[in-house]
Structure formats: structure tokens, C-alpha cells
Amino acid sequence: MTITLTPELTSLVEERLKTGNYPSAEAVIGEALAKSAGTDHEAKADAMEEFLSRELDQILLSKDPNYPKVADVEAKIEKRPFRMGVGNLFVAANTGRNVRKLPPMPEKPTLADFFRLRFGPANHVLQSAALAMKKGLSEEIILACLLHDTAQAVMKVDHGYWAAHMYEPYVPEKTAFAIRYHQALRFFPDKEYGYEYPDLYRRLFGEDYVPMPHVRNDYEMARNHKWYFEARMVTVNDFYSFDPKAEVSLEPFTDIIGRHFRQPKEGLGNDSSPIAHLWRTIAYPDNPL
């Protein structure tokens, strides 16, 4: 039986291989297959994905000091049939398998419709917002935590900038600022607020990775801005919101969305905002042109 993996799980197999506990990538996959229920291809692949997903936290929290170098990360580029920065809507859930048909959007889609029909699974951002709410942070910060990674549906590269662009016509300026600059701040630790440079980034980018000039410039600007705290809180609540067992929903944030999100009466993507086209891209990713 041939089993294909998502890009994320492909990376997970590679990380498990680095532990030295397996002689080959096939051995990692073999263990997952052995411990995964299911008989047909679809069921086996789904069960294997679930098994490997349960191991993800161990990789993210690994204390293994043997991080890759930038050159090691770059060497993998031509060994993949996909780009790491591609948005989630534009690749199959499992590499080598077909994309699934998306449910139709309502005639006048709301933010909640996009969460339900295009952003899912949105467990991470829902956890992030729930953590910010639990801490008693402002509604502008909670909303920023809720929205900060949703642009990964269309693009992972510079997703903070993409997300700020998506939401600027509809949210408070402070919220858009926090979304935009969390992108740069996540590369720079801040002991005062308990934010450390994530080990995950050393594994993703390489331990000798140096942030690009625009990232450092934006960090320096944001660090001295009156809304630095708001942007920094997005990174803090981002870092601690990867519990795969957490049960979260959009419902606790309905009132905050109602108070702070300017929903266009025509529906997102149908209004005259300068960013309506991006909402249409997310709504209709199968359009050929």
C-alpha cells in the first residue's frame, strides 16, 4: 500500500529521523502504519496522519541541540514537489492525493462563514484568542490573536502582512497593527514579556538563519511604537497555543467580532474595499483565472 503525507507530516517524519532512533524514513513511516488502524488507502492514510500528528508536540518541544543549518534547509527545496510558502487552500491535504471540493460560500459571506468554510481547521488561532481572553487582554488584542494566522489559507510567506492587508478595512487600526507586526516580532525574543525565540524556527529556518532586512527594520520600528505591547501579545499567545487536544470554537468571540469587525453588508469579497479580491481568492480558489 502506498501512503502519501502532507507537507507538514513529511517534515515531521524528517524530524523524527533526526532523533537517531530510526535507520530510515521508511522505518518512521512503517511504525506509523503499524500503529494506525484502517484497511483501505483513505482510512490508513488518515489514521497514519492522526498518529504522526500526535507526535508533533514532541518534535516542536524537542530539546535536541542538533538543529539544521540554513544550507541544510535549502538543500531540501528541490526534493519536494511543493513550495513551503503555499497557502493551505491550494494544496491537497495529503501530498499526492487530490484536493477536495470545497463547500459553496453564502451569497453574502461573513467572517464566521470564512472561518467555517475556508479557514478550518482554525484550532490554533481559536486557542490563541482564548488564551488572550483568559488573560484579560483587550478586545483589540483578542481579535488580533483570532485573525493573525488566517491568511495562511492563501499564503504562508509573510502571512502577517497578508493578514493585516486583508483586515485593515474592517478592524480597528490597533488590531491591524498587531497582526502585521507579529510577523517581525516573532523572530526576536523579549524576556520582559516571556517570549523566547522558538526552537521550531531553528528547525524550520536553520539555526544560523538571519531574518531578512525588512523583518529587522519592522521589528525596530514596532519595538519603539506605542502599540508594541499589542503586537508582542500576539506573539506570546501564538507561541503557547498549539495543543491538539484543546476544544475551542468561534462562539466565545461572537460579541467581540460584532463590536470590532465592520462586516460589509454586501458580504466579504463583494464590497468595494481595495482588498475584496483577496477575499474572493479565498472564497473561490478553484477559479482558473
Protein described:
The chain is mainly α and 289 residues long. It is 50% helix and 0% strand. The protein has two domains: 7-90, no CATH class; 111-283, Hypothetical protein af1432 (Orthogonal Bundle). It has helices at 7-18, 25-34, 41-54, 56-60, 70-75, 111-119, 123-134, 139-147, 159-167, 173-185, 199-205, 213-223, 228-239, 254-260, 276-283. The radius of gyration is 20 Å and the shape is globular.
% residues in beta strands: under 5%
How does the helix and strand content classify structurally? mainly alpha
- Gross CATH architecture of the largest domain: Orthogonal Bundle
The CATH topology name of the largest domain reads Hypothetical protein af1432
Can you give keywords for this protein?
50% helix; 289 residues; mainly alpha; 2 domains; Hypothetical protein af1432; globular
Summarize the structure.
The protein has 289 residues and is mostly helical. The protein folds into 2 domains: 7-90, no CATH class; 111-283, Orthogonal Bundle (Hypothetical protein af1432). The chain contains 15 helices and no strands.
Could you outline the blueprint of secondary structure elements for this entry?
Elements: H1 7-18, H2 25-34, H3 41-54, H4 56-60, H5 70-75, H6 111-119, H7 123-134, H8 139-147, H9 159-167, H10 173-185, H11 199-205, H12 213-223, H13 228-239, H14 254-260, H15 276-283
